[in-house]
Amino acid sequence: MNRPHPPIVGVFDSGVGGLSILTALRRTINACRFVYVCDQEFFPYGLQSEEELTRRVEQLCQQVLAQFPLDYVVIACNTASTVVLPRLRGQLQQAVIGVVPAIKPAAQLSRSKVIGLLATPGTIERAYTQELIALHASNCTVLKLGSTRLVELAEAKLRGELISSEEIATILRPLSQDPLLDTLVLGCTHFPHLLEELQAAFPRPITMVEPSEAIARRLLTLMEGASHISLAEHEARDEDILYVTGPPLPASLIQAFNLGILFRKK
Question: Residues 111, 201: one domain?
Fold first, then answer.
């Protein structure tokens, strides 16, 4: 499919958690431009009702599409994806990729068949999540832990603030005390930013599973299928765009993730 411009991909999250997805996308795909949509004004998504969250994401997608000709939409948030994916796919012409808890690979990797799901309370409670567990981990014991505080700590870390390893260890204690748990699903895109701290909270090595590389491979497959060209080895891409609602991000964070142009919603 011929386009007058390289593919443009919108990556949406309520804060900076989705930067874990953006990092994997950049690492895998060069021949495109990313618009990272940081919805600070509605942070955190995990505390919103399904109705509020659905309405917000739908409106935000339309606002961004009015500014940028997106070819693909990535909802880089487990909480939002478990709620809005069917509606967005029915409304948008663009391909919509969601991020959902990596239950299936975790169940396949676990030797003890005791796995943990660490996510926001909203994601933990969603029927979509329960369906994933029933479909892909019926032979496993799944220990679920919901935490909004870990989302806040991930945001603080990326802003250069000191965070408490002891607090993280306390939050994880219901999981870390189980001697059989050997695999942990990071069911929030904020949590990979705390990977070292999460691993340190366990008294033994734990396999931690998150979906960023799988999302990148999925998007690459869709792009190559549409354009019939290789996008992984393209020399360079256009400068990426940061679209922020609410308070601005620290300049140090923007620079660290090489977010390029700063575009703020007024």
Answer: yes
Q: What is d(CA 35, CA 137) in angstroms, rounded to the nearest whole number?
A: 35
Residue type, 76: A
Tell me the catalytic residues.
77, 188
What kind and span of H or E run contains 185? strand 183-186
Query: Structure tokens of 223?
Result: 């792009």
Measured N-to-C along each axis, helices 50-67 and 78-91 cross at an angle, to the nearest 10 degrees, of: 60
Euclidean distance between CA atoms 122 and 173, whole angstroms: 20
Q: How far apart are CA 166 and CA 151, in angstroms?
A: 16
Q: Would the pLDDT of 228 be above 50?
A: no
Mean pLDDT, the chain, rounded, equals 90
| Total number of domains constituting the chain | 2
Domain boundary pick from 209, 226, 242: 209
Strands of 241-245's sheet, edge to edge? 95-98, 72-75, 8-13, 33-39, 241-245, 261-264
